[in-house]
Amino acid sequence: MAEALAGLRKIEGGQVTVNGKDLTRTNAKTHIRSGVAFIPEDRLHMGLVPELDMEGNRILKQFDTEEFSKYSFIKKKHVRATIEKESEAYEIKSAGGGTPVSFMSGGNQQKLLIAREISTAPDLLIAAYPVRGLDIGATESIHEILLDQCKRGAAVFLISEELDELFQMADRIGVMCDGRMVSVMERADADYDTIGRMMAGEER
Hints:
By secondary structure, this protein is of the alpha/beta class.
């Protein structure tokens, strides 16, 4: 579902609409330009390029924009300044200038990825298992960033199998089973037992 919403997978049925614009049969670049950002489940191989450094990964989706390039040349000073500003804001620690991001910790990789995705102030932020495999400190930091995006007015589509995380973060909870949406409910109307049985396919 996450890849379909992000424009990375062909949709077999249904419709994707963002701010009234039909994106159902458009590509990922159109989704990005229409205000959709994506934090994929596999941060190091789908979200980032392991062999590139922080600067290269930071501008992956914006290298051809006026902000980061001029006359087809990258504005290196501006890229470095952006990295420094975001590293301070999100407490991102690198392994040193020019070092591939594969040498960074999982938490720092994820914060770099998220900083890039939210830099364009997206209207829809798709986050697939954004804290999987991270320590408590990184988890809390990323949860805070996602909540800040909600306060800004973005719609955050959080995909998780951790019920504690969903009850902590979500306004509404949707349950999927066998690739289909079983139910969508307000968090106040949800409980662990009902959601657990829906996830297992025992109740629809």
